[in-house]
Amino acid sequence: MSEALAEKRLQELGIELPTPPQPAGSYTRSVRSGNQIFVSGQLPLTAGEMVFSGPVGEGGLSVEDGAEAARLCALNALSILAADAGGLDNVRIVRMTGYVATAGAFAGQAAVMNGASDLMAAVLADAGVHARVAVGVQRLPLDAAVELEVIAEVNG
Description:
This protein has three helices and eight strands; from the N terminus they run H-E-E-E-E-E-H-E-H-E-E. With 156 residues, it is an alpha/beta fold. The strands form two sheets. Strands 1, 2, 5, 6, 7 and 8 form a six-stranded mixed sheet that branches. The mean pLDDT is 94.
């Protein structure tokens, strides 16, 4: 996929990639090992501010809110990959692991993580289709609703 195509898809979707977020602790935003980039867990932040916090499910955020949080995490991950891989034309998403802060007996983690998965496929086409894990947890850093970890393959 060419960078121009990824950029065109972003424009068609009305999306501008954010500035790559800075780490919130003692780690780096990504590490390249061979032809893979491991993107640290991304939170639903915009300009350093938490947009979606608290649990998803019973008495908390809706599945739709959770999916939007996952989508925002994916946008942050894409911004890191674009910067650290030399452009989105060089990237194939291999695997994503999504952590969803859940309330009660909520078991819709997969539906929440579809927000991130659908965005990757919309922007990167076949190179955005990936293996995935969706896990429910009691709490996430900074009281985030979702955290997303991404492993990508870099071509070139």
